[in-house]
Design brief:
Distance between the termini: 49 Å
Structural class: alpha/beta
Strand content: 15-25%
Number of strands: 12
Largest sheet: 7 strands, mixed
Order of helices and strands: HEEEEHEHEHHEEEEEHEHHH
């Protein structure tokens, strides 16, 4: 009970990965779905003739152990690789569990995020509630085995996977993972399904998220017209999901800037834009992220970079 008193009440289901629900979405490619549970990502396991790539780990070592066990059984002796879509705790903070079992490779900006911001995010997430703190207990911030600049092509044997850093968007070190032979794209938190875009806008501590650059990334990704899109959280979709996120970011920017141009107070802008976004997307979850998105676009209004 002491642990419960030390942390705020956590209003969501425990952030636990359930590998028993893994779904094959293409030959030798499965997704462990997040089941719409907060702080549980969609996790990919992508196979080739001699190697298997895992995409994201879940929150902390216990979840990562479940993912590693599943991936090891799935691989049936094939070599294991691990990559993460960005450095946030539910995506990357189980990577240390894979040490000695898989080669962990990430883009340079993400590696720098892990090194410079990982400890702060670990402390912040631990304070979210007892269930989150439990999953993060024993977390060691990972050090990648391989860090690459630019795009990286990974040969799994008869299948290549393209690891593509996108530049600053949801975070400074975002990357997407593309499987061209079956036209599957893993987006990390650049795209979510059935919820408002997650804006980790926490001034003055973290302001790396950029609504404008994120929008440009989504314009590029939506134009690629991928057949299958695995979002960071939510239901697997298609190119329409990328267009939906692009359109939401556009309307959030436009409605925020329209009010910013009229010298309205930010408090009033947040109130009006939030009400409008909820009216337009009444079924979407995670409404608390609208305010952060408005704050980010307000900060970017003057520079418009």
């Amino acid at each position: 009970m002491a642990e419960e008193r030390e942390h705020p009440a956590y209003p969501y289901p425990d952030p636990v990965v359930e590998t028993s629900g893994a779904q094959e979405i293409a030959p030798d490619l499965v997704v462990v779905p997040n089941r719409d549970v907060d702080l549980v990502p969609n996790i990919g396991v992508i196979g080739g003739t001699h190697s298997v790539l895992v995409v994201d780990t879940g929150l902390g070592p216990r979840n990562a152990h479940q993912v590693l066990t599943f991936a090891t059984e799935y691989a049936k002796g094939r070599r294991l690789y691990l990559t993460t879509t960005h450095f946030h705790p539910e995506h990357a903070f189980g990577a240390h569990t894979f040490a000695g079992e898989a080669t962990y490779l990430v883009n340079r900006a993400q590696a720098e995020d892990l090194e410079h911001k990982g400890a702060g995010y670990l402390a912040m997430f631990t304070q979210l509630g007892a269930p989150v703190a439990r999953e993060l207990e024993g977390t060691h911030l990972p050090t990648p085995d391989l860090v690459y600049d630019g795009d990286h092509t990974l040969d799994l044997g008869g299948r290549t996977v393209h690891l593509r850093p996108t530049g600053r968007g949801h975070s400074r070190g975002d990357q997407v993972v593309a499987v061209p032979d079956v036209d599957v794209l893993f987006t990390g938190d650049l795209a979510e399904a059935g919820q408002f875009a997650i804006f980790p806008w926490f001034p003055p501590h973290d302001t790396d998220v950029s609504g404008l650059r994120w929008l440009r990334v989504m314009e590029r990704l939506a134009a690629e017209q991928h057949r299958t899109v695995v979002p960071g959280h939510g239901t697997i979709g298609d190119a329409g999901l990328l267009a939906e996120v692009r359109d939401y970011l556009t309307e959030l920017r436009d409605e925020t800037w329209r009010r910013r141009d009229s010298a309205m107070s930010q408090e009033t802008i947040v109130e009006e834009v939030r009400a409008l976004m909820v009216e337009r997307h009444p079924d979407w979850r995670m409404r608390e992220w609208i305010e952060n998105g408005v704050g980010c676009f307000c900060a970017e209004h003057a520079g418009q970079d």
